[in-house]
Amino acid sequence: MEILTVVAPVFGARCSVVVGADGSCVVVDAGAGVGPQVRALVAQRGLRPRAVLATHGHADHTWDAPGLAAAWDVPVVLHAADAYRLDDPFGTLGVLDPRHDPRGPLAQALAGAGVDVAAWRAPERVEVFGSSSGPRSPDVELVWDDVRLVARHAPGHTEGSTLYLLETDGAAPTVLSGDVLFAGSIGRTDLPGGDDAAMATTLRDVVATLPPDAVVLPGHGPGTDVRTELATNPYLVRPR
Fold first, then answer.
1. How many CB atoms lie within 10 A of CB 70?
2. Measured distance CA(226)–CA(138) in Å, rounded
3. Domains along the sequence of the chain with CATH
4. pLDDT in tens, 93-119
5. What is the CA radius of gyration of the chain?
6. Global pTM?
7. What is residue 70's three-state secondary structure?
């Protein structure tokens, strides 16, 4: 499989287009403003979109998902525990809600990208995996033609935060980590649905057990790899 990247104008959120050998593809994290670029890329490459996935339900990772899904007549797919966020993705952001803080960072970023907060429409087709309650869900294999990913529940940033694991041609495995893991840092846990204890468990039982050579493509910022993060990330380095 091949991974193509489009960076959103809002908060620099990473949107990944995962392409199978047969030309099928899925789009992961269609953040605010990526829609035109992604549609042009898909058309230029002659790809066949099968789904629009989200690593979690925050608006900066889902804003353009309904539009792309409707244009291609495919579902929006995410963990069941975050599905409720698609009804009002700003209302689940607490202090970052641009309607409550019109001069805040998210409001400014949306305005700069020409995004109208009032224009949100929930996706017509939503498919979920995992459980909306209880402990961490087991891994789920997601398959669309030649596109195969493993969805690994990684709560802490949000209840339904998910890592997507995939094998790429002739290379180390790749992890689309959303806002769970960044290069040198981790996702914040102080917004609604965030949980320090859940994040600590995720870091110990999920992130630290990933293959050391796995490439990590975070939801924001530069890529990294698991070995580097285990050795240098202050949230993952264990006391000696």
1. 15
2. 21
3. 2-232 (3.60.15.10)
4. 887 777 777 777 777 777 777 777 777
5. 17
6. 0.93
7. helix
